[in-house]
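Subject: for your reference before the review

Hello V.,

The reviewers asked for a structural picture of the protein, and I figured it would be easier to keep everything in one thread rather than splitting it across files. Below is the amino acid sequence we used in the manuscript, unchanged from the supplementary table.
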Amino acid sequence: MPWCFAKVGVLLGTILLILGGWLTRQSCTLLLDASIANRCFSYEYLSLMICGKWAKLAVEICTIGFLLGVCVAFLVTMADLLPPVISRLLNVPESGTLRALTLTVIAIFIALPLSLVYKISNLSNLSAFSIAFYILLALKVFLDALANPQGPNSWYRDSQSWAPQNFLAVFPIFATGLSCQTQVFVMYESLSEPSPHRMKGIIADAVFMCILLYWSVGIVLPIPT
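And here is what came back from the structure prediction:
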């Protein structure tokens, strides 16, 4: 997100982030209403009932591609962030071997077990901890930036407001950064008392929280364009 805000500016970036959140909320609501009308709570079989077998195949391929992209993005992020920390903690040189070993451990002992969990409700405590961590991290970054707006890496001095020439480069990131369509039916079925009204409220709250976290970090961590 900081890269996106640096590319298009704070004002345009905020508008695009809100637009992406609105589109995400509307698409999730449409999926939920369609599933209730057809009494089908599966992304793939809902497309089969409405549009036919080719739509089901297209949805399955797109879902696989989306999830693969999420896995790659997660591993790349961990590979960029964890090796320097491990190197300092263990006093070992940072190298390609350390990076590969870190990725292997994360993939086998963290990502794989989590992906094999049958009931998503079993991850509620872990999700709550993750949300609390992200909120505290975003709050610290935002408050630190506000306390020193004219520092050597000044977000206030270096930020721009409007740069529409980079719109096409960043809008897909704003849109996919809020994507939760593939989790709508899984979350709905995991509710203790599932209801459309309750699920729509959960979607709205989740999208709003993500927008707020992305915005609070994105505007104060400018990256040179």
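For the response letter, the relevant points are probably these. The longest helix spans residues 53-90. The two ends are 13 Å apart (CA to CA).

Happy to draft the paragraph if you're swamped.

O.
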